[in-house]
Amino acid sequence: MIDHLGINCADWENSKTFYDEVLGVLGYTRQMDYQVAIGYGRDGKPDFWIADMSAGDAKGPNREVHVAFQAADEDAVKAFYDTALRLGAESLHAPRLWPEYHPGYYGAFVRDPDGNNVEAVFHGAKPQG
């Protein structure tokens, strides 16, 4: 069900040190590092993300959370997106390939009624073209 989860951190430097160490003792390491967001996991797959809240729009006591749900295929991602919009969700990113994450990453992002960034993702999409 849950593909990956992300939180925003107010004290970026302290958070990086904290998660490097506490996740390190559990066998998790940095799998991706975008300077303002770091994904931790194993075997090349980041499952838990931290982000520097001062680098984005998520500020204040109710900082957004990012949750990505696994989808069975590209059609399921599209259905998630269309349903969310029908229910009044704000579109963050329409369904598309995200090759900057990895080949075959197909996802759509919406903002839920409480302002959280919610995604549906399928990891086996075929590159277009």
From TrEMBL:
CDD domains in alphabetical order: VOC_like
Source species, domain of life: Bacteria
Positions of the VOC domain: 1-123
Any Pfam family hit: Glyoxalase
Classification via SUPFAM superfamilies: Glyoxalase/Bleomycin resistance protein/Dihydroxybiphenyl dioxygenase (SSF54593)
InterPro entries: Glyas_Bleomycin-R_OHBP_Dase, Glyas_Fos-R_dOase_dom, VOC_core
Coiled-coil zones: none
Protein name: Glyoxalase
